[in-house]
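Hi there,

I know you've been waiting on this one. I reran it after we fixed the sequence typo, so this is the corrected version. Both the input and the resulting structure follow.
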Amino acid sequence: MRVVVLGGDGYLGWPTAMYFSKKGHEVAIIDNFAKRQWEMENGITPLISIQTLHKRIKAWESVSGKKIRTYIADLSNDRLVYKHFEEFLPEVIIHYGEQPSAPYSMMGIHHAVYTQINNIRGTLNVLFAMNRCVPQAHLIKLGTMGEYGTPNIDIEEGFIEIEHKGRKDVIPFPKQPGSFYHLSKVHDSHNIMFACRNWGLRSTDLNQGIVYGIDTDETEMNPDLNTSFHYDELFGTALNRFCVQAVAGIPLTVYGKGNQKRGFLNIRDTIQCVGLSALNPPKEGEYRVFNQFTEVFGINGLAKLVQQVGKKLGLDVKIAHSENPRIELEEHYFNPVHTKLTELGLKPNKLSDVLIDHMLQKIMANKHLINTETIQPRIRWKQK
């Protein structure tokens, strides 16, 4: 297959590109390196420095014998999206190319507007380019479980059957997003569903949980192939942040009561889910949704697990409940369905002492690189 990875320089995009290349597919990356710019603007870096994309591609060719094409382009530039789609003619389009941080989107008006315009416009350009250049291609779009919020009913996979005044219908599951970033994902979902229904495109919307992990099989092949593991407030997800705090001797920042529940998955499983989606495409005109996570954890339980494993490694891990900077329910029902990827053959790497031990030991080896000034939450959801 010809596979293009939008946002292929990122935490998930780079390992995904290597994964498909290793499987023998023809792979191209489209990226404008905006994530690196956001990092510079906010004085943050990944824990372990990563090479430029061009150097990583050369390193990948050296260890694998396989080439990955590179196109430097901003998805908000429709002419460039058309140009590169016409040249590469992708059969699978994996879309990570968006501003991925809820806290970033809540920093203020400029960040909120940028997030929405960047994400929604880019996805619309991708849809129009697909329709013109590769209408039979399969769009695999990274969504988020955060689109659903935390309703007091079971969360279905994208759609729900309802009965109202004696009539029944299947409609998109109600959305209750918790940030301007999550709202941008909701708009994406609606636009993609519309394009599939009206133009006959095909798409898989992967509503992903919180990702953790440092390595994949491919990144471990050479140090120059590392991906961008973040632990800061903007781009560091909960478990990644907890593990770095444990090593740095900083109390784990549990927001509020810590009873919030979320879906989690290992970075290796993100790649596996995208691979399974690509091998099992939807039919023409179909828009489908997979809830992409493997386990549900409460934040308190996650922090205690890191504390227990850290203790075995000689770390004195403390847990501190801090004021919650977000506006969210801290006591809530949470029971999302996630069966479709399992039915396709997903074999999850479930969280264990071994996985946390591996993360902690790698972080301990790079403890001197931790910037403690970027960890603590400063961004407040409530604007004054």
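Quick highlight: Residues 342 and 348 are 9 Å apart (CA to CA).

Best,
R. S.
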